[in-house]
Write a structure and sequence with these properties.
By secondary structure, the chain is mainly alpha-helical. The chain has 30 helices and four strands. Helix 11 crosses helix 12, helix 20 packs across helix 21 and helix 23 packs antiparallel against helix 24. The structure holds heme C (HEC) (11 copies). GO terms for molecular function: metal ion binding.
């Protein structure tokens, strides 16, 4: 449509400009319908329509971004909150754009847009911080709601209806002016904002980077910190990884997610630089064998493979639940947010499981519990009852397995004769790990002999034991770790090798 108008405008600019003035004036003085029509993302698309990442491709990139998935539209960001901000963005900026579109060369327009896309100050001019903070903070939202006329009963933009804390908590997000981020690198927003930084100093590309989620770049942090460090002592050293990577640190300490048992990584005592040669270095398995024997290279790749499999399993229902999210009642949505957060944490950590395999595994188990709780969710009497629902769902599921009544006495007698068995003695000629002293009797008291033996009386195992070497050995894969995973029993290395 616009292309036609454009051609028309070239043929007869005067009539075209007159037509525009009529439209603009009409819209300003009561043409609400026209206002609505010219507020939609589809309208903006008439001129910002390229199907690629870059200037003129803003609709394309917005469409891929998390904000569009949450119904945050162009004018929610591009304009101050409130009626005045809306009219300003709509009429003044809109008219300017129209005139530029008609009278200014494409080259010049691209130059203007490129400036707005790369310079933090120009970017803030295009998308003011007040809009971001209206949605992402409680205090600014409440302050602006007190001080400004936000709406007059007519729905202009989604932002008109945003009331915090309700709005942001419905998405499981933090109030950034007062709280730490819910996941990822912790910048301490409050300090940077009071130091005068704009959102775009770190979040440039937040809606138009071309991805679903746009993460700030580490280089941006370092560039500025390097220049201000001398004057401001509180700026962390670039080598102080954990000052920013609180999430990675929290995962390694096994304390990052409430409601999941703490589980410290066996290498939590190492410093980040023991594996990461520099901030921009991703270690590969060569690193592992610098401290361990060769078999540890495959421990790293095995860990990452297992992580990828579990992540895929846990994400199985994600797309479907995500699409239903906007319609979920609050209690159910809180469960979804918790589930979504775990997935984001696992992905954002970036080590693909290496940083604390057992803890990440426990997080996935928790995420699966949450999907069940979401499925079986029914409106509780009071919304607050949502949290106990999860435990209830988990508790209901546990007794489903019939209680084990015990092995026959004659078999127990056999097992009693072998209380502890040193498995390595028989099967591992060249151990690289402390031998496993298997608590045979303790297991026999809790489960059927046939869980492990095809013939308990003579003690024949239910699988044939091959060569025991490295992580992919028969005891791990066919017996011990397989069952411990299913039954959610501890499986850090020193649970068995001690
Ligand atoms: C008639 C074509 C046209 C339409 C329709 C249009 N724009 Fe633009 N837009 C332009 C042109 C041309 C520019 C560059 C000149 C300027 O900065 O105004 C521009 C610039 C912008 C900028 C950068 C402004 C700055 O400060 O540098 C933003 C943001 C923007 N448009 C958003 C929108 C939104 C949101 C809509 C829908 C409500 C929209 N545009 C609809 C043509 C258009
Ligand atoms: C109308 C409200 C609204 C406005 C305005 C808004 N956002 Fe958002 N933003 C959201 C919502 C809702 C989400 C979360 C969607 C989700 O997680 O499903 C979000 C997500 C984000 C995220 C990603 C969080 C994550 O999980 O990684 C960042 C970063 C962000 N916004 C920054 C900004 C910035 C910067 C601005 C201003 C340019 C802005 N937002 C404007 C509502 C808004
Ligand atoms: C000093 C850099 C910096 C500045 C300035 C900054 N942010 Fe952030 N912001 C970050 C980092 C880093 C994250 C963590 C995300 C990650 O690891 O990818 C983040 C996360 C967020 C999130 C996600 C919060 C959550 O609960 O997970 C939102 C929303 C957000 N920022 C909005 C804003 C807004 C709005 C502004 C402007 C008022 C702003 N940020 C200014 C660096 C910054
Ligand atoms: C979450 C807030 C947000 C939403 C929603 C959003 N933008 Fe933007 N937009 C920004 C920010 C921030 C910038 C500054 C440059 C940057 O970060 O990419 C910007 C820059 C722009 C620019 C000028 C610079 C450039 O990259 O060309 C245009 C034009 C623009 N947006 C158009 C749109 C249109 C059209 C839509 C809707 C289809 C939209 N924006 C939706 C935040 C948003
Ligand atoms: C434009 C400059 C600038 C940029 C960009 C910047 N910072 Fe900072 N940062 C500062 C200043 C200034 C301080 C000191 C603030 C203070 O102590 O009041 C600081 C302090 C910090 C602190 C210490 C806060 C505390 O609790 O004492 C952390 C952590 C931090 N920055 C993280 C980040 C991250 C992460 C990024 C990149 C996403 C980033 N910064 C980008 C200027 C910047
Ligand atoms: C000033 C804050 C800050 C410090 C200090 C810092 N990082 Fe980062 N780091 C970031 C941000 C921001 C990102 C990008 C966002 C993300 O990945 O969530 C990042 C990303 C990374 C990445 C991903 C790859 C990349 O190139 O973006 C690695 C690896 C990394 N950091 C390792 C380290 C290590 C190791 C150290 C210590 C030597 C360190 N970082 C120190 C803020 C910091
Ligand atoms: C035992 C070695 C080891 C230690 C210690 C370690 N890491 Fe890693 N880290 C890795 C490995 C391996 C990867 C995954 C590299 C890959 O496969 O791309 C990784 C990945 C990362 C990534 C993600 C890179 C990306 O591309 O997104 C970040 C960020 C990171 N580590 C930060 C840290 C921080 C911060 C610390 C200290 C608190 C730390 N690491 C300690 C081994 C280690
Ligand atoms: C800087 C030396 C160093 C590097 C590099 C290193 N580790 Fe470790 N690793 C250790 C230390 C120290 C322990 C703790 C030993 C203990 O508690 O007995 C450990 C423990 C372990 C354990 C559990 C206990 C054991 O001995 O089996 C595993 C598994 C492991 N590392 C795997 C890896 C993998 C995989 C990598 C590569 C991503 C790696 N390590 C890189 C030093 C290192
Ligand atoms: C959790 C697994 C597990 C359970 C349950 C279990 N066992 Fe065992 N049992 C083992 C393992 C492992 C060995 C050592 C394998 C070997 O020596 O070949 C073993 C060894 C034995 C042996 C000696 C075999 C030999 O070749 O020396 C006998 C006999 C035996 N078990 C009987 C029983 C009986 C009877 C029960 C039930 C009351 C039982 N076990 C329950 C795992 C189990
Ligand atoms: C059929 C399931 C099953 C198999 C096979 C199995 N286990 Fe277990 N194991 C369990 C259960 C269940 C517990 C937890 C018992 C409890 O909570 O008291 C446990 C507990 C343990 C513990 C104590 C853990 C702690 O929390 O301190 C160790 C050590 C152990 N097993 C080692 C092994 C070894 C070694 C093997 C292989 C030879 C093995 N298990 C095979 C089910 C199994
Ligand atoms: C649930 C019990 C259990 C857990 C947990 C466990 N193992 Fe094992 N592992 C065994 C058993 C049983 C054997 C065979 C007997 C032996 O080696 O003592 C074995 C054998 C091995 C072997 C081959 C024999 C050798 O000494 O070289 C390696 C290597 C090994 N394990 C590494 C690990 C590492 C690394 C971890 C942690 C990531 C781990 N195991 C966790 C039970 C376990």
């Amino acid at each position: 449509m616009w292309q036609k108008l454009k051609n028309f405008s070239r043929k007869d600019p005067l009539i075209f400009v007159l037509a525009i003035i009529v439209i603009v004036v009409g819209a300003t003085f009561g043409g609400l319908e026209a206002m609505h029509m010219t507020s939609t993302d589809t309208f903006c698309k008439t001129c910002h329509a390229e199907q690629r990442v870059g200037v003129r491709g803003e609709h394309f990139t917005w469409d891929k971004n998390i904000h569009s998935k949450a119904d945050v539209s162009c004018l929610d960001c591009h304009g101050d909150p409130g009626i005045i901000g809306y009219l300003d963005a709509h009429v003044i900026a809109g008219t300017k754009s129209l005139l530029y579109q008609i009278f200014v060369s494409e080259e010049k327009i691209v130059e203007l847009l490129t400036h707005a896309a790369t310079d933090p100050v120009a970017a803030e001019h295009a998308a003011p911080d007040s809009a971001c903070l209206f949605c992402h903070s409680d205090d600014v939202n409440q302050k602006l709601r007190r001080e400004k006329l936000i709406s007059v009963g007519i729905h202009f933009r989604n932002i008109d209806e945003v009331k915090n804390p309700t709005y942001r908590t419905s998405y499981g997000l933090a109030s950034i002016t007062g709280e730490p981020v819910t996941k990822g690198v912790e910048p301490n927003h409050a300090k940077h904002i009071s130091a005068g930084l704009l959102c775009t100093n770190c979040h440039i590309g937040v809606a138009h980077g071309g991805e679903l989620y746009n993460k700030p770049k580490m280089q941006t942090c370092f560039d500025c910190h390097d220049t201000v460090r001398e004057k401001v002592q509180t700026v962390p050293a670039n080598e102080d990884c954990a000052a920013c990577h609180t999430m990675q640190k929290g995962l390694q300490e096994g304390t990052y997610v409430k409601g999941v048992d703490e589980m410290r990584w066996y290498m939590a005592d190492l410093s980040c630089s023991d594996c990461h040669d520099s901030a921009f270095e991703r270690p590969n398995s060569d690193k592992c064998v610098m401290c361990h024997d060769d078999s540890y290279a495959s421990i790293m790749t095995d860990t990452q493979e297992a992580f990828a499999e579990r992540l895929a399993e846990v994400k199985g229902k994600y797309a479907q639940l995500f699409s239903e999210r906007e319609d979920m009642p609050m209690g159910k949505r809180a469960l979804f947010n918790e589930y979504a957060r775990i997935i984001r944490i696992a992905e954002m950590d970036g080590s693909k499981g290496v940083h604390n395999p057992d803890y990440l595994d426990a997080l996935f188990t928790r995420a699966l519990e949450l999907t069940e709780a979401i499925d079986t969710w029914t409106a509780p009497v009071a919304e607050e009852a949502a949290a106990p629902m999860v435990q209830k769902a988990a508790a209901e599921e546990a007794p489903a397995a019939p209680a084990f009544a015990g092995n026959p006495a004659e078999l127990m007698e056999i097992a009693s004769a072998m209380e502890i068995i040193n498995i390595a003695e028989k099967y591992v000629p060249e151990p690289t790990k402390p031998a496993v002293n298997f608590e045979h009797l303790a297991h026999a008291q809790k489960m059927a002999c046939t869980e492990c033996h095809s013939d308990p009386e003579s003690g024949v195992l239910k699988f044939e034991v091959g060569e025991i070497k490295g992580m992919k050995n028969d005891f791990h894969e066919k017996l011990c770790i397989d069952c411990h995973t299913k039954q959610r029993v501890k499986k850090t290395c020193n649970t068995c090798h001690k």
